[in-house]
Write a structure and sequence with these properties.
Length: about 240
């Protein structure tokens, strides 16, 4: 039996402002720092000895992991992977969600935000939020930097990374913690819980609440639960 913990980063500054963030490298808010600290304490109480840690290239995810490691008293190195980055929100990036809903109308807004395979319009390469300008992604190939993504697009990069790098560790009875983002984790959950294209739009992953999954052979799920029951969502 091995244990996999999935945690969406603590609240970011743009989360608190209700803005579409995607690949923009926004830091944690004060609330997000506290959520990460609480997550670390919850994990410490579980007495899990983790063998590997993974996170994205974005600071809100890896800072969450760093805070967790401090709280559990662990100094082990972790792996950053662009494949675990948040979904790219295209031309919606940077905008307030309520304002965009009014502008686009509820139906179109929901299609862009929650549909399986409909991405928002592409973000202009000259936008101040363009990932092509961000030195954080200088080591990525051009075709690895999106201009927009649907959840399906996010699935197509996050899930192969999970299957090739993380599932083999679970099969070898290693314990793994992934600190990532709402949509990259939704994509992974879609795979491991066999969630349909239609039902995945209702999966909501709260910030800073560790999801503990016990698995046999890396594929058979024996148990799944959130550690903070007061903020748990239906899995």
């Amino acid at each position: 039996m091995s244990k996999l913990v999935l945690i969406r980063h603590g609240q970011s500054i743009w989360n608190s402002e209700n803005r579409f963030t995607g690949w923009v490298d926004v830091d944690l808010s004060e609330k997000g720092v506290k959520e990460a600290e609480t997550a670390g304490l919850l994990l410490k109480s579980e007495n899990i000895l983790f063998d590997f840690y993974y996170t994205s290239l974005l600071k809100r995810a890896y800072r969450t992991l760093e805070i967790i490691l401090q709280k559990i008293g662990e100094k082990r190195k972790f792996t950053k992977a662009w494949e675990l980055n948040e979904r790219h929100y295209g031309s919606l990036t940077g905008f307030n969600k309520d304002e965009m809903q009014k502008k686009l109308g509820e139906k179109q807004f929901k299609l862009y935000r929650r549909s399986w395979d409909i991405p928002p319009p592409e973000l202009d390469e000259n936008s101040e939020f363009s990932s092509y300008k961000d030195p954080l992604f200088k080591d990525l190939k051009v075709n690895q930097i999106p201009k927009t993504e649907s959840l399906k697009n996010t699935f197509e990069r996050a899930v192969p990374f999970y299957l090739n790098n993380i599932q083999p560790l679970l099969k070898n009875k290693k314990n793994v913690l992934i600190s990532a983002h709402g949509n990259s984790l939704r994509a992974i959950c879609k795979k491991i819980f066999s969630i349909s294209d239609k039902d995945i739009n209702s999966l909501e992953i709260p910030t800073g609440n560790p999801m503990l999954i016990e698995t046999e052979n890396g594929t058979d799920i024996k148990e799944k639960k959130y550690l903070d029951l007061n903020r748990a969502k239906k899995i």
